[in-house]
Amino acid sequence: MSAANEALIRRFYDAFARRDAEAMAACYHPDARFSDPAFPALQGAEIGDMWRMLCSRAQQFSLEYSKVQASDERGSAHWEPRYLFSKTGRMVHNIIDAQFRFADGLIIEHKDHFDFWRWSRQALGAPGLLLGWSGFLRAKVQAEAAKGLSAYRSKRA
User: Fold this and answer.
1) Which of 70, 81, 86, 128 has the fewest Cβ atoms within 10 angstroms?
2) 68 C-beta neighbours (distance < 10 Å), count
3) For the whole model, what pTM was predicted?
4) What SS3 class is residue 109?
């Protein structure tokens, strides 16, 4: 099973590199949970819609991944997307470590970890430099991300 789970992670990131959100969403279990510093608590169909939204908005996007490992129950990967952050027009090179758990041959839990302050300095410029370490800015980014996802999901319905 570890080889199948490793192939699942690779299939997910290969689809992401192509911006194929449907293929990405198909990698998740219906009861999956996702979290990262911008989207701290997504579940089920919200996850696929987040990837659909992000892929549809991606500009000047590229992705590299490495260090894919998997066992029967858990997996991990390192990935580095580069993209234009549309709200500010600033280029971002994020460095992310992902942790996965699997069930029924699919991803049931996905946690992405990255340095929020580093990301905010790139994406937001001076405000990110000055406030990226604060819970205030993180909460603001999370609220904006949730608002954007909600609007995206409403349009799809």
Assistant:
1) 86
2) 20
3) 0.93
4) strand
Distance in angstroms (rounded) separating the CA atoms of residues 108 and 74: 10
Q: Where are the alpha helices (DSSP H) in 19-134?
A: 21-25, 45-57, 116-124, 126-131
- Rounded CA-CA distance 24/18 in Å is 10
Positive or negative, the CA dihedral 56, 59, 62, 67 is negative
DSSP H helices, the chain, are 2-17, 21-25, 45-57, 116-124, 126-131, 135-156
What is the sign of the dihedral through the CA atoms of 139, 92, 35 and 130? negative
Class of domain 2-156 as given by CATH? alpha beta
